[in-house]
Prior knowledge:
Chain A has helices at 2-5, 7-23, 28-31, 37-48, 55-69, 75-95, 99-124, 135-163. Chain A has 164 residues and is mainly alpha-helical. In chain A, α2 runs parallel beside α5. At the A-B interface, α2, α5, α6 and α7 of A face α1, α2 and α3 of B.
Amino acid sequence: MIASRDRYPMILATLALAAVLMIVPLPSWLQSAWPYWVALTLIYWSLETQDRITLGLGFTVGLVLDLLTGSLLGLHALSLVIVIYLVNRFRARLRFFPPWQQALSVFAILMNDRIILLWVISLRGDALPSLDFWLPPLVGTLVWPWLFVVLDRFRGSMRLRATR
Amino acid sequence: MIRGNVGTGTRFSGSAGQTARLMLYGLIAIVLMAMDHRGQYVPKVRNVVENAVEPVYHVVEWPFRAAGNLSEQFRTRRELRHENEELRRRLLAQQADLQRLATLREENRRLRALFEGADSLEFEYRFAELLRVELDPFSHLVLIDRGSDDGVTVGQAVIDGAGVMGQVEDVHLHFASVRLISDPNHALPVQINRTGLRTVAFGLGETDRLVLPNVPREADVRVGDLVVTSGLGDRFPGGYPVAEVRTIDREPGRTFARVEAAPLAALDRGREVLLIRSNVRPPVPPAPEASEAPDGAAASAAGPTGDDAEAGEGESARPDESAEAPQ
């Protein structure tokens, strides 16, 4: 328990980095495919730590993200709460999936998130988005294994430093 | 927000608790969204809290700005000389246009005095730069680096070198957010420059299309027509180019043709913008013309580039109230 408590700053740091990645200026072709970094990071931490990632944390992070990106207040909060709920619910299974199966589950979670976003967009009466609306979950799935490895490395190095 | 005692209860109660909390947070989020959308309380609070977010924008922007500066440093003398020449040529062309504009303006003023017309407007331009920050693609907002400290006010029109971009929606201390004309909830009073036909341009949620849904089916509209602001509604000053007509769909049996136009402003890639402020001026001060001329010239030189020539040509066909607008 004590070990997992010092993990908290580490989690927040990676989340902050992910949030910054969401607003980095990009060429437009990349912009439409840019994955949902915050969700991916939260999925990782939610899988790897027992109970650090609560729905409340997701909600708070989501609100901050809403402020940062100028989206409807509560939009990212809703989406992240649902993502975390799903991961927490199926964590026991997800953790021991082989990588490709895990990536598929991540894809399902991200797609679900897109569908919720679509629902909000249509409630607002905005024009329905074009096909590349569905690109970010795809790219997110492709990025997932690499992100997993990177974050694992990062966590490992942090743990080493903590024990030393 | 951090709960300490997970896993102490039975498995069942834990997951039921999760679901209950999911419902609760979901409900709060939906209520927040609804309130934000409807504009009750939440936008005000949000406006204050967003000031706290500002440093993040600067952090994100910094490397890109630094890279830009660096590449500026390493530009060769030749490139600079080239650009200098190009700019000088353009300035000359625009000054030629301006000379004509000055006489037109004078004529317009005399006519106005003859009719004891309404107060004429004078415009002030203020330079601003977009913050290099990518917001939610569905928000149709951009951020500019000027805020209430620089005298930006809500509702100010924002243009770039080619046309109208949008209007200021929220003003913070050092930055402001601008709602683009491509937003599906944005309506812009416009007119067809060639005929003076007035209509309204709506955003479609895409940065390369606007729609003019209320053009009568038999109206004289052609592909390639310039769409300019009409100045009705008092938000946007009249006469600024907005878009170019792309497609006209005259479906038989409908009262209105569906006209689509492509915005002239670089909505998705522009960097430098101008904020317009209009000051109502007491009608017709005849004397200080001489002292005013250089001032006006400076303002227009910084203003829309392609605008002046077209406005000059369209002058005779245009209704009177918008004739003074390009200045």
